[in-house]
Amino acid sequence: MEKSLFDKYGGFSTVSKIVLTLYDRLLEDDDVGPFFDDVDLSRLIDHQTKFVSSLMGGPASFTDDHIERAHRGMQIEDHQFDRLKEIVAEVLTDFEVDAPDIETIVGAFEARREILIEKPNVN
Fold first, then answer.
1. Closest CA to 88 of 60, 51, 117, 61
2. Are 54 and 109 a contacting pair, CB within 8 Å?
3. pTM to 2 decimals?
4. CA dihedral 45, 51, 55, 61 (to 10 degrees)
Protein backbone atom coordinates (compact mmCIF):
# COMPACT_ATOMS: atom_id res chain seq x y z
CA MET A 1 0.00 0.00 0.00
CA GLU A 2 1.39 3.37 -1.04
CA LYS A 3 1.86 6.02 1.64
CA SER A 4 0.04 9.32 1.35
CA LEU A 5 2.20 12.42 0.98
CA PHE A 6 1.03 13.33 4.47
CA ASP A 7 2.54 10.12 5.89
CA LYS A 8 5.57 10.21 3.58
CA TYR A 9 6.67 13.60 4.92
CA GLY A 10 5.98 13.06 8.60
CA GLY A 11 2.34 13.96 9.23
CA PHE A 12 1.08 16.95 11.19
CA SER A 13 4.49 17.67 12.72
CA THR A 14 6.05 18.41 9.33
CA VAL A 15 2.98 20.00 7.80
CA SER A 16 2.77 22.36 10.76
CA LYS A 17 6.38 23.46 10.23
CA ILE A 18 5.75 23.90 6.49
CA VAL A 19 2.67 26.06 7.13
CA LEU A 20 4.46 28.20 9.73
CA THR A 21 7.28 28.83 7.26
CA LEU A 22 4.75 29.48 4.52
CA TYR A 23 3.03 32.20 6.54
CA ASP A 24 6.34 33.80 7.48
CA ARG A 25 6.98 34.23 3.76
CA LEU A 26 3.42 35.17 2.81
CA LEU A 27 3.40 37.95 5.40
CA GLU A 28 6.63 39.36 3.95
CA ASP A 29 5.33 39.33 0.38
CA ASP A 30 4.01 42.61 -1.04
CA ASP A 31 1.39 40.90 -3.24
CA VAL A 32 -0.21 38.51 -0.75
CA GLY A 33 0.92 39.78 2.66
CA PRO A 34 -1.79 42.48 2.94
CA PHE A 35 -4.51 39.79 2.88
CA PHE A 36 -3.42 38.80 6.39
CA ASP A 37 -3.27 42.25 8.00
CA ASP A 38 -6.42 41.82 10.10
CA VAL A 39 -6.54 38.05 10.40
CA ASP A 40 -6.34 35.87 13.50
CA LEU A 41 -3.11 34.21 12.37
CA SER A 42 -3.06 31.40 14.92
CA ARG A 43 -6.56 30.35 13.85
CA LEU A 44 -5.67 30.70 10.18
CA ILE A 45 -2.48 28.66 10.57
CA ASP A 46 -4.46 25.94 12.32
CA HIS A 47 -6.97 25.84 9.44
CA GLN A 48 -4.22 25.99 6.82
CA THR A 49 -2.35 23.14 8.49
CA LYS A 50 -5.48 21.02 8.24
CA PHE A 51 -6.06 22.16 4.65
CA VAL A 52 -2.52 21.36 3.49
CA SER A 53 -2.74 18.06 5.36
CA SER A 54 -5.89 17.22 3.44
CA LEU A 55 -4.19 18.11 0.14
CA MET A 56 -1.44 15.66 1.08
CA GLY A 57 -3.86 12.84 1.82
CA GLY A 58 -3.98 13.41 5.56
CA PRO A 59 -6.93 12.91 7.87
CA ALA A 60 -8.39 16.43 7.68
CA SER A 61 -10.91 17.28 5.01
CA PHE A 62 -12.17 20.50 3.47
CA THR A 63 -14.94 21.01 1.00
CA ASP A 64 -14.74 23.50 -1.84
CA ASP A 65 -17.83 25.19 -0.35
CA HIS A 66 -15.94 25.83 2.89
CA ILE A 67 -12.97 27.22 0.98
CA GLU A 68 -15.20 29.47 -1.15
CA ARG A 69 -17.03 30.84 1.92
CA ALA A 70 -13.74 31.53 3.73
CA HIS A 71 -12.40 33.57 0.79
CA ARG A 72 -15.62 35.27 -0.37
CA GLY A 73 -15.18 39.02 -0.84
CA MET A 74 -11.37 38.95 -0.54
CA GLN A 75 -10.96 40.10 -4.17
CA ILE A 76 -8.06 37.76 -4.85
CA GLU A 77 -6.62 38.28 -8.32
CA ASP A 78 -4.86 35.80 -10.59
CA HIS A 79 -1.40 37.29 -10.08
CA GLN A 80 -1.80 37.05 -6.30
CA PHE A 81 -2.90 33.44 -6.56
CA ASP A 82 0.09 32.72 -8.82
CA ARG A 83 2.41 34.31 -6.25
CA LEU A 84 0.88 32.15 -3.51
CA LYS A 85 1.60 29.04 -5.56
CA GLU A 86 5.20 30.18 -6.14
CA ILE A 87 5.73 30.67 -2.41
CA VAL A 88 4.14 27.30 -1.60
CA ALA A 89 6.50 25.62 -4.08
CA GLU A 90 9.53 27.46 -2.64
CA VAL A 91 8.67 26.41 0.92
CA LEU A 92 8.06 22.80 -0.10
CA THR A 93 11.42 22.79 -1.92
CA ASP A 94 13.12 24.08 1.23
CA PHE A 95 11.55 21.20 3.17
CA GLU A 96 13.04 18.79 0.61
CA VAL A 97 9.70 17.65 -0.75
CA ASP A 98 10.28 15.75 -4.00
CA ALA A 99 9.53 17.72 -7.17
CA PRO A 100 6.67 15.45 -8.34
CA ASP A 101 5.07 15.75 -4.90
CA ILE A 102 5.38 19.55 -5.05
CA GLU A 103 3.60 19.45 -8.40
CA THR A 104 0.82 17.37 -6.83
CA ILE A 105 0.37 19.75 -3.90
CA VAL A 106 0.60 22.94 -5.96
CA GLY A 107 -1.74 21.32 -8.48
CA ALA A 108 -4.28 20.83 -5.69
CA PHE A 109 -4.10 24.57 -5.00
CA GLU A 110 -4.47 25.26 -8.74
CA ALA A 111 -7.55 23.05 -8.90
CA ARG A 112 -9.24 25.56 -6.57
CA ARG A 113 -8.31 28.70 -8.53
CA GLU A 114 -11.80 29.17 -9.92
CA ILE A 115 -13.42 29.19 -6.49
CA LEU A 116 -10.86 31.63 -5.02
CA ILE A 117 -10.50 34.24 -7.75
CA GLU A 118 -13.27 36.78 -7.94
CA LYS A 119 -14.39 37.40 -11.45
CA PRO A 120 -15.50 40.89 -12.39
CA ASN A 121 -19.24 41.35 -12.63
CA VAL A 122 -19.93 41.59 -16.36
CA ASN A 123 -23.55 42.73 -16.02
1. 51
2. no
3. 0.88
4. 150
- First vs last C-alpha separation in the chain: 51
Separation of alpha carbons 120 and 93, rounded Å: 34
Q: Which residues of the chain have pLDDT under 50?
A: none
Which ranges in the chain belong to alpha helices (H)?
5-8, 12-28, 41-55, 64-71, 78-94, 99-110, 113-116
Cα-flanking dihedrals φ and ψ of residue 115, to 5°? -90, -10
Task: Compute the distance between CA of residue 87 and CA of residue 84 in angstroms, rounded to an integer.
Answer: 5
* In contact, 55 and 108? CB cutoff 8 Å: yes
